[in-house]
Design goal:
With 454 residues, this protein is an alpha+beta fold. It folds into two domains: 270 residues, paralog of FGE (formylglycine-generating enzyme) (Alpha-Beta Complex); 115 residues, no CATH class. It contains ten helices and twelve strands. The strands form four sheets. A four-stranded antiparallel β-sheet has the order 1-4-12-7. It has a four-stranded mixed β-sheet with strand order 10-9-8-11. Strands 2-3 form a two-stranded antiparallel sheet. Helix 2 packs across helix 4. The longest helix has 27 residues. The protein is globular, with a radius of gyration of 27 Å. About 1% of the residues have low confidence. InterPro entries: CTDL_fold, Glid_motil-assoc_lipo_GldK, Sulfatase_Mod_Factor_Kinase, SUMF_dom, SUMF_sf.
């Protein structure tokens, strides 16, 4: 009994000594230091309320945007549409990851490690367990072989640069893997080796929080029931330049628009809603991988804007404005068009552009947002319902019905008349559709800024 009493006293002493730094005060749990920063290429859109919908005449007679006063929280938004250059970074990352994974798997199957060179330079990093952490060894021992391929979660080696020049391939195994990602010779022409873009797939998981929250009311739910896995072909559909316009010569745009450096700062098009969502997930991962390497706390996710967020940002704080610059005219005091669209019944070049223009063209609105009207229409996260304004919340409204494949696009494009440039005009496209006139930009919820006074 005496030993038990002493043990109890010792246990209580340990518990009390653990809290000695707080000196008995309620100080809260101290986590990682938060380093708030303004996301690169984004502008802060301050929280506020506005009248969403058509306060002016509904020239289209669609009756799908009655006025409604709503409030949105603060968020960051890209100051331009996502450009070809930015989306190419995503494509290059996916291509790099796929090649490294294929090389690592073959090296693992052959039992070749870094000490043997060649394809061994690209072996999984955990192949050398002498330098692995206790956690890495535990995961390898307990979870190796699980998953669709059996290689999920294993660390890729990124110490060596990939070799793309065929004359510099290190061995026949490396050649075999590289050859597998290119189109076969009978599908190539003019002696060009072309990547098989259908193999550029990005796979990710996300949790359907809304579905989980509603299901929790019924009880007996499991977290894994609401984890969704997506695998998306991420290369833009360049054929949209041909398919969108019958009896029209647009082959130069099909051939050059996405990959040529001349179009690097132009908005990416030919992107489906699913591809835009995949890009948002990758951008979050890309940033958080870097934060992890620096010992910094993760940032919250990049995502597509809700319809309300998009309209609020497009208005730029101008209450009742017809266009991002106010309006009601699309021509400035100096006689210049204020956006890239289709003026004067088909005179596409009247606004100094035939197709798209560079993402930082024309004057930004008062939130410093470029091309919120014209250039390319933009995907939002919201599903389209003509009567959505009648039932969505007045606080951060969002019609996010997963079963509705019609997704709201906003802003009008280079091929649209002025009506579609109005900040209150609603339009939609199907989530699996890609168009030569639809792009996107991303947002991120606001979580604070660095103190510039320190």
């Amino acid at each position: 009994m005496k030993k038990l009493l002493l043990s109890s006293v010792a246990f209580v002493f340990l518990l009390t000594s653990c809290g000695s730094k707080q000196k008995g005060e309620l100080t809260g749990v101290q986590g990682k230091k938060w380093y708030p920063e303004k996301p690169y290429g984004m502008e802060l859109i301050p929280r506020g309320s506005f009248i969403m919908g058509k306060s002016e005449e509904d020239q289209g007679k669609l009756l799908n945007a009655p006025t409604k006063t709503v409030t949105v929280r603060s968020f960051y938004m890209d100051d331009t549409e996502i450009t070809n250059s930015e989306y190419r970074q995503f494509v290059e990352w996916v291509k790099d990851s796929i090649v490294r994974t294929k090389l690592a798997i073959l090296a693992d199957e052959l039992g070749i490690g870094p000490e043997e060179g060649g394809i061994g330079d690209f072996a999984f990093k955990d192949a050398d367990t002498t330098r692995a952490s206790v956690y890495d060894k535990y995961m390898l021992d307990n979870y190796s072989g699980m998953g669709e391929t059996g290689y999920e979660g294993r660390a890729l080696s990124k110490d060596e640069d990939l070799v793309w020049n065929t004359s510099d391939y290190p061995d026949e195994y490396y050649t075999e893997i590289m050859d597998s990602i290119y189109l076969p010779e009978d599908e190539s022409y003019n002696g060009q080796r072309t990547i098989d873009v259908k193999k550029l797939k990005y796979k990710y998981s996300w949790m359907d929080i809304e579905a989980a929250a509603r299901a929790s009311l019924k009880g007996n739910t499991s977290r894994k029931d609401f984890i969704r896995t997506e695998e998306v072909e991420i290369y833009p559909d360049t054929t949209v330049w041909i398919r969108d316009f019958s009896y029209s010569y647009n082959e130069p745009m099909h051939n050059d628009y996405f990959w040529h450096d001349a179009y690097s700062e132009y908005p990416v098009v030919g992107i489906t809603w699913q591809q835009a969502k995949a890009f948002c997930n990758w951008r979050t991962k890309f940033k958080n991988d870097d934060n992890k390497s620096r010992g910094r706390q993760f940032v919250n996710q990049f995502r597509l804007p809700t319809e309300a967020e998009w309209e609020y940002a497009a208005r730029g704080g101008i209450e009742g404005g017809t266009y991002p610059w106010g309006g009601p005219y699309v021509i400035s005091d100096t006689g210049c068009f204020m956006a890239n669209f289709k003026p004067q019944r088909g005179d596409y070049a009247a606004d100094a552009a035939l197709y798209t223009v560079e993402a930082k063209s024309y004057e930004p609105n008062d939130f410093n947002m470029y091309n919120m009207a014209g250039n390319v229409s933009e995907w939002t996260n919201s599903s389209y319902d003509p009567s959505a304004y009648d039932y969505v919340s007045t606080m951060n409204p969002n019609g996010g019905d997963q079963s509705n494949t019609r997704k709201v696009i906003r802003g009008g494009s280079w091929k649209d008349v002025a009506y579609f440039l109005q900040v209150s005009t609603r339009d939609y496209e199907y989530a699996d559709s890609a168009r030569s006139y639809i792009g996107f930009r991303t947002v991120q919820d606001y979580m604070g800024e660095e103190d510039s006074t320190q």
